[in-house]
Amino acid sequence: MTENPNSYDIIIIGAGPAGMTAAVYCARGGAKTLVFGGIAPGGQLLMTTEIENFPGFPKPVAGPDLMQNMLNQAKRLGAEVIHEEAADVKFDKKPYEITSAGENSFYCKAVIIASGARARWLNLESEQKFIGKGVSACATCDGAFFRNKEVCVIGGGDTAAEDAVFLTKFAARVYLIHRRDKLRTAYRLQERLKNPKIELVYDSVLEQVMGDKKVSGVKIKNVKTGQIREIPAQGVFIAIGHEPETKLFRDSLKTDEKGYILTDGKTRTSIEGVFAAGDVADPLYKQAVIASGTGCMAALEALKYIENTTT
Ligand code: NAP
User: Which of 76, 51, 66 is nearest to 17 (CA)?
Assistant: First the structure.
């Protein structure tokens, strides 16, 4: 009997640092490996500019360059990468079945979920109304549209600070609006915020994005004084963190209350032969290097699993 060409030893869902590192290890370990990479393999690092904390790069490396290198490395070692999303998974019988958005079915002995996380929204009505018309969750993607304009960034973490610094390349003025009086940003990034184009606005929350067809400004409220301030701005970047990309798995795998996949510390999920790595199972650190590390762990566990099972 000829083997189904859509049968693999290990299928990896996601092509960020976790998925790509897993692919390198699985392929190098001799497993027939397929990666669901989505339309643009690379994950969240495709949306970052300079990465200066991934070991091995004495000079900052651009996120897309780092991911292209990982992709090339995984392919050179024999991993196959398809430019499709996974649309459905069946973990109730073996071999496990994964159906692509193009409705092709693929089968495997083990699965590594490395689907990462996506940006969160505030879910204000006015924010949702202006998405794509001045409101964005990706400064790297949309920053260049705001040349010589005024923009706001909402958030107080590394993403917000990085976005604010990046946007000074284009915008005339950048307001970084944070709900508390202290950023949670790393020291070096805080230093880079000392830029004459950036105004830090503390203790303030976004009340409303204003505009007619396009954004014209924001209304913010000082949470300590209750005072309302209007800031003219053509762009609003929401950078308030991420949520795990787990909607495909919530019915079959155990997750925490926020949707992060629960693992046993060795990347093993509640279903044997299904492993999770990277931000999808990491509510705490969310660093590329940790995603790579857990991707490696998942690959080693998956290789051991397929070696010890007969299906
Ligand atoms: P984050 O660290 O979770 O920060 C989210 C920020 O948004 C916090 O300041 C939070 O405020 C604020 N926030 C959350 N919900 C909000 C709401 N409803 N309204 C207003 N503000 C809200 O998320 P992140 O900045 O995206 O970073 C995620 C992870 O990626 C972190 O571990 C970070 O270190 C990492 N990262 C690293 C780099 C880098 O190293 N180059 C770059 C980007 C991200 P509070 O402070 O009050 O909680």
Answer: 66
